[in-house]
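Reviewer has doubts. Consider these tokens.
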Amino acid sequence: MTSLKMRTDPLFMRNNFNTSGKWEIPTIIKQDMPIDNISLIAYSDTKANDRPENTRHGVHFFIDDYRFKGIYDNPRKSLSKLSQYAFLLTPDYSTYSDMSLWRQMESVAHSRWVGAYWQSHGLNVIPTVTWSTALSYSFCFDGIEHNSIVAVGMIGCRKAKSAFLRGYNTMLEKIEPPSVICFGTPFKEMTGNIIAVDYRSSRKAVR
């Protein structure tokens, strides 16, 4: 049995934010922010009381999932550290095509929930969008407001170019983002206002 205290704990229920779509995915509110000369730092390179040279960056999560598992499990723990940085991309939890759909949906929901949580504490957030096959399209674009700036990652997409481009074009149709932050080198077939960020430069934190 779940105790009454746990039953009413928002971190257990995860029901304290607006949702969208059939599966009630938490919604990240559209935020307009300057993205000229954008730069990113990996979450694994962040630290408490970081240097000003590093805090001017946004934070990305295009790294192995295990490195940021605690972001969802205990979001309060990293809140102070992450609040130092200019903005945050939402966690890039994996949605591999050989995962069961419920696991892919869980990854999307966790990413959106974390973004909504950060926004509720006044942080600047840009949603990271990820997808697998066409079956994931029924939920992987939910929780992102129309005309929001979004981010996508190119690492690992080279061997599944056709599937990536189908999902990317579907994302453009559904969300119509004014800008797409692209972590890595975009495919030449990708359209839209793409802002490419070199993944090598994102690992150059000042220490």
User: Anything to note?
Assistant: Residues 20-203 form one domain.
